[in-house]
Amino acid sequence: MINIETPTYYTATKKYDLHFPDLQADLEADVVVIGGGFSGINTALELAEKGITNTVVLEARYLGFGGTGRNGGQIMAGIGHDLEKIKQDVGEAGLRSIFEISDLGADIIKARIAKYGIDADFCHGYGYMGFNRRQAATLRSWETAFKSLGSKHEIRFLDGSDVQQIIGSKAYSSALLHMGGGHVHSLNLLLGEAQALASHGVKIFEYSPALEVSYGERITVRTAKGSVRASKLLWACDSFLNKLEPELHKSTINTYAFQMMTEPLPDALIQRISPIRGAYSDIRPIIDYYRVTRENRLLFGSATPFIEHIPLDLKAWNRRLMLKIFPYLKDVNIDLAWGGPMACSPNLFPQIGTLPGRANAFFVQGYSGFGVTPSHIICKVLAEGMSEGSARYDLISSVKRTQVYGKDHFRPLLLSAGKSWHQLSGFWSGRR
Q: What distance in Å separates the CA atoms of residue 164 and residue 172, rounded to the nearest whole number?
């Protein structure tokens, strides 16, 4: 198993020395949030900006311990892996509405950074990379779709030798440059958002795991040393739910992703790797993703493509993938490697809504590996649902959740079968 206490790039380079106490009292609140990652903090912040500030956030460890502090930091367009998977739930018009809001994430993040003066190393520039003709055709269609949203940023398809304008690799034959996307230091972003949240008067507690939840007109969450009684609850634990709410546990399954970072590299080498100092991913069903950092490192990540397993040597495993793209980095040292779970939904689309029969118990989960940018969109919509209500909350919460049967006994087998099917279907959808 992965040692989740291993330092990550984010914990090694965080700029905020931010700490909150553990809960040692019995509190009354309007809203209680379980989970101190992007989902919990951002939804609470969206509510606070609407004037709902009598909120308590409970984090089992420290803020960003989960997926928020273990990701690639990619600022990508979109929500979910393939919107066609939810067409049967939302229809053609609903699909178009979701696509239209799916490009809002980068602007939401930038606006929040500007409003609260957050130091999170946001950098513009994203490359979606293709290996073959099928993927080139897909990227051309994405160019048309992205441009149809009226983006003010440069969006441009490249092929052949022109690909070298944005990346120093001969592995790819096509690319789609989207200058509205980019990358961010996700832990510093979260901590800056948490600092902003606290400035609104919201109470945040770390090292305060929820031990028991009692539902009713007022919901009570009990911790080891205290409790919170609130009118509304938000479950925002994603892959760290740990079976605490059985209804949510049954509709996602955890897989693992793995990242590494190189030693600091010379400016000339960084310029060769990434002339735009950007972030990149290919468009296969299970992607390689990477970016350069402010400190001139290359951060590279992926997941196992077919067979679900945890590599014995994360540095060596990630290094092999990196060298397929950048063989000239063969003499570069790897300083850190880490990994962690990510909760996947059967349709690879985030899940929001309320628990059956419990209209005041909300949830958000199942980002399926795409969480940094979509979480900021989804949590804005979720906060609308938790406050005044909105048509787009009704739309996204109407996407059906389905149970993942046998996950507690056959998780590796189910994931291996799912990954293999996902890869095969990529040929039909132009992503393999």
A: 9
Neighbour tally for 361: CB within 10 Å: 21
Model confidence at 1, pLDDT cuts 50, 70, 90, reads: low
CA end-to-end span of the chain: 30
At position 42, the amino acid (one-letter code) is N
The strand pairing partners of 183, in sequence order, are 74, 123
The CA-CA-CA angle for residues 77, 369, 110, to 5°, reads 40
Asked if residues 303 and 70 have their Cβ atoms less than 8 Å apart, the reply is no
**Residue among 37, 413, 382 nearest 236 (CA):** 37
pLDDT tens-digit readout, 299-338: 999 999 999 999 999 999 999 999 999 999 999 999 999 9
| Spatial CA neighbour of 79 closest among 305, 295, 381 | 381
| Residue 97 one-letter amino acid | S
CA distance 110 to 102: 15
pLDDT digits (tens, 9 = 90+) for 128-162: 999 999 999 999 999 999 999 988 999 999 999 99
Burial of residue 128 (number of CB atoms within 10 Å: 0-12, 13-18, 19+): buried
What's the rounded Cα separation, in Å, for the pair 186 and 241? 21
Question: Token pair for residue 265?
Answer: 């590299």
Task: Tell me, yes or no, if the pTM score tops 0.90.
Answer: yes
* Cβ contact 386:43 at 8 Å: yes
